[in-house]
Structures are given as structure tokens and as C-alpha cells.
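call fold(seq) -> C-alpha cells
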Amino acid sequence: MTFTHAIARRPAMNAGDGLTSASFGAPDPERMLAQHRDYIGILESLDLQVTVLDPDEKFPDGCFVEDTAVVTPEVAVITRPGAASRRGEEAAIEPLLAGHRPIARIVAPGSVDGGDILVMGEQVLIGLSTRTNEEGARQLTGILQACGMQCISLAAGDGLHLKSSINGIGDNRLLVTQEFSECAQLSGFERVVIPADESYAGNSLWVNGRVIMPAGFPATREIMDELDIEILETQVSEFRKMDGGLTCLSIRF
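ret:
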């Protein structure tokens, strides 16, 4: 799928008050903003028209906009985030998508975070996690199957979200952490397995034929160079402190 648009939100100065299980210390707000600007610049260099929302201090996690929606060529599904403190973030996202896609919604008691959903052409991987429950997966499957898509549910693994560990780097090629190297539910995909000590690089982002990856993971970079994949590296250290990464920071469509 070729992306032409993206939605992002600048991090708030209180982003360090958001949810995290990481132990890397508090993010530096100014460095976080600089890294976010670099990220937006990369998306724009790949010919995406990026809508950047202002920070909203009511939602310290609000820069991780991906969790608020799942967008396919046929529909935009507004999620119900799994963390209660994040419910309400989606209100600003829905009107931006309504001009591009029909809207569907996940409703209680279902919960879905967009970070658990990986769209690979007509196939969709749905990660079951602390943020995406079985009822949310059931609702999402029903919506997407009605659009002719095939959904595969699987445990999200050790990361916060499925896309902490699995991401597309081609039409039928997945970049996966060691944890998913033998996963039977991924047997229909080519898998590129990254070294165990570089698992954070599993959250890389494929956009319009190129892969954006976090800086500082040379072994993973070498693997992808050998596959003749064009790589764009960028620093996301401050977002990592908040359990975030490259995919989380935008909705692409």
C-alpha cells in the first residue's frame, strides 16, 4: 500500500507523566520534540502529507497517535484504547479520518490499541495484549472481514504491543524478534529475524518502499542492507523511555 497521508501529534511537555514500563529514566522534553521534528521530516521526505496536531497535556501519551485508529484502504476503525487514561485521545483523530474513509468503531467492552494491529495487504495480524482484548479483536475482525480482509489473532508477546516485535518490511516480509522466529501463525510470511540484543529494532516502519528504523542497531541494519532494503535511520531514544517507537508516532494511510 502506498501511503499519501499521515497524522501525528507533537509530544506534550508532560509526556514523561505517561504510561511506561521502561527503566531508561524520564524523557527530555526538548530532545523529544527535536526527535519528533526529525521523524515528521522523514515522513514528508517520503511524499506523505502530514497533519501534525498540537500537544494536549490532558493526554501525556497523546503523541502515540497510532493507538487511536486502524486504517485500511476501505475503512478507518476508531479504537477504544486499552488504557483508561488514554480514552478520549481518539476524539481528535476521527474527524481527520472521516474525510478519507468510512468510519467504524470499537465499543465497550472491547479494547484495541492500533499498535497491536499490523495490516499486510489483505491480511491483518491482531495482537492480543494488555491493551487489545479478545472482544476488541472480535469486533475488529468482524469489521475487516466485511471488507474482504483476513484476520489472524495471536499473542502479542513480551512487548507492549504486537508491533513492538513484528513489522512489515515488504509486501510479504516481516521483521521479527527472536520470540516470533518460529511462530506458526506467521508461516505464510517470509521472516527476517533480528538479533536478541537488538529487539527494539523490531519496531521499524515500512513506508513507500523504504524502512525507517531506530538509530543504534548495527546488526539489524546490516541484515537489512544485505537484503538491499533502503534504510532511513532516526533517533527515538526519548520515546523509547515511554515504551514508544517509530510506528506509534503516526497513523499512515
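The chain has a mean pLDDT of 97.
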